[in-house]
Design brief:
alpha+beta; 5-stranded antiparallel β-sheet; 8 strands; globular; 3-stranded antiparallel β-sheet; about 20% strand; 5 helices
């Protein structure tokens, strides 16, 4: 199974110096929760991940901020990048901000393979959690299914009314 080992932001939004986030601790993957006071760069991590996978940051676009707002204000040209290290044949994928063509990052590594194995969206923002609270049961189920990278076709209802997914039976 392919697993993410690490993500490193540098010069991206609120992260000027390299900011490595280790997703394994000498072996098995670990969960990561990012918390902190306002303005400390928490959103920069999810923004960087979204930029790496899609080439844009949707919530910033909705607020009228374009790709020119991705580099940290104090960084020079060519110093804005996001790197992901993954186990297996994908290895390392890097997105570099291209000041000559700001709408498209320059990639090294197999970005298409990384995108193929990564469900999107694969991160939760505060606004997502806030809207989730007010959804109906069906809407919450659909959102969780989407978030987990599953689709209704992956599930089949068994005779007892439980569910079956990839060899796991639940009630």
């Amino acid at each position: 199974m392919i697993r993410m080992k690490r993500i490193v932001l540098q010069g991206f939004r609120g992260a000027l110096a390299p900011l490595p986030i280790e997703l394994t601790r000498g072996g098995p993957p670990v969960s990561v929760a990012i918390y902190g006071r306002n303005g400390t760069g928490k959103s920069s991590v999810t923004d960087a991940w979204e930029w790496l996978l899609t080439g844009r940051v949707e919530h910033l676009a909705r607020e009228g901020a374009g790709p020119s707002s991705y580099p940290h204000f104090a960084v020079g040209n060519g110093a804005t990048r996001v790197t992901v290290e993954v186990t297996g044949p994908i290895g390392t994928v890097t997105a570099d901000f291209d000041p000559e063509r700001i709408t498209r990052p320059r990639f090294t590594g197999d970005i298409d393979a990384l995108r193929a194995i990564t469900p999107h969206p694969c991160h939760i923002r505060f606004a997502d959690l806030a809207s989730f609270v007010f959804m109906s049961k069906t809407e919450r189920y659909d959102k969780l299914t989407q978030f987990m990278g599953l689709s209704v076709s992956w599930f089949s209802v068994n005779v007892t009314g439980g569910w079956y997914y990839n060899g796991i039976v639940g009630v």
